[in-house]
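Recall the central idea of this unit: under ordinary conditions, the amino acid sequence of a chain determines the structure it adopts. In this exercise we apply that idea directly, starting from the sequence alone.
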Amino acid sequence: MANNTKIALVTGGSRGLGRNMALSLAKKGIDIVLTYHSKKEEALAVVADIEKTGRKAAALQLDTSDTKAFGAFFTSFAAVLKDHFKADRFDFLVNNAGIGIHASFAETTEEQFDQLVDVHFKGVFFLTQKALPLIKDGGRIINLSSGLARFSTPGYAAYASMKGAIETLTRYQAKELGARGIAVNVVAPGAIETDFGGGVVRDNEQLNKMIAGVTALGRVGLPDDIGGVVAFLCTEDARWINAQRIEVSGGMNL
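Accordingly, the structure predicted from this sequence is:
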């Protein structure tokens, strides 16, 4: 199929950072398939915003914690590629979907732990594995970590541990997929003003000031600070960046 436009799959692309990533990728001339968990209207609004830029876009429902649903998801995804984009493969996978659970190490429940494993590690591991037959040689995979994998903030022991696992996985993926010319990198945002974790960074003035105070550039991050970095990693200019952890935190906790 002769379609030279590149296509990105962005998980959790209906809001927050994922929405910003999807729009930033579209600005680079990349078509977008985004996934949403439950907020279909929000996802369709992002699709409409992308289409206003002249790019093609589609939204698919996906629970990234439910590995048993991945087979059916990729069947739907392949159909959307064919029907909507006139393509049989895609170029870029952005593993963005995530949840925030704040609990001290002493009080983290097994249920919370399992939920974080399923979304942030197991889901990413097997979604990427299942995507391999559809991703083009020479494509890119971008995994999302967190500044919390480098510095420790009480309340995020389980969440940050999953992100540490993702950083290790990224290096293994880069090594094993290198023969196919696929580069794999990690983007690790610092604290960002979004709905994430109930919007606590955005809405808690005390926390916001505290974070700004430990950030070299003197403010809390915004979604606009992150999406462009993910988009850059999907350009030709970034072709030789591989197996790297790129922290986008304004210099937090230096």
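The chain has a mean pLDDT of 96.
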